[in-house]
Design goal:
mainly alpha; single chain; about 0% strand; about 260 residues
Length: about 260
Amino acid sequence: MKLPNCCLWAIFLTFLIQAPAASRVASFPGDEAFEKMDYRTAERQYDSVLCVIAPHPDLFWRLARLHIAVGDVAEENERMEHYRYAEESARHCISLDSTNSEGYAWLGAALGSLAMDAGSRRKVELANEIKRCLDRAVALDPKNDVAWSILGTFYRSLGGVSWIERQLANLLLGSLPEGGYAESEQAFQRAIAIAPNIVRHRFELALLYEQTDRLAQAGAEYTQCTLLAPQMASDRKRKAEALKWLHENQEHTQNMQ
């Protein structure tokens, strides 16, 4: 006799509750929908699990990841709400498990997104917390490509701060973390070595090369972006921007041949 869907759902959740901690991280309802970029279904399924099982850290970092993914493609007036929810979810993950690398990585991502809308003093405060989160993430799991990629973006932003701006920030707002373009490139290379098929890693590295006038290398990474399948909805915009750059800078792509 075929069981109704509701019974199958209950059996699965019962197994999830009773399974050892190591096995619970394998998958959750909502993961498949997230991979398909069906974020509305993913959120509904994650929320359904929260109503049934005890709080689990790996579910909360998934919620943080989900709301960052939604925020990245949301309307301007909705974006920060998703990033705040992502921060809250990541902090909840860490409160449940202070050794969860993904929790720290997605907290760093959420804080970085929130920093875009923050004032100068708050930006400096967030910069230091972001650095602490990401350092903790890679210390707990050196193969956390997400953390390395966000570190790359973080260091690239620091590389764009002039010496005078840094001194003024240190004097008036509190000290900025050390680091810049060299550390950014190293972090992106670490991320790509771990997960070479992630669009974001290569796109952000291309931005670094473009920003530091290494246009042939930027073209190589933008080209790779166009060949990869998107993993998040925001990757579609990245791929479109990579194609646009390649079209507008054909002389640099020709130099690669």
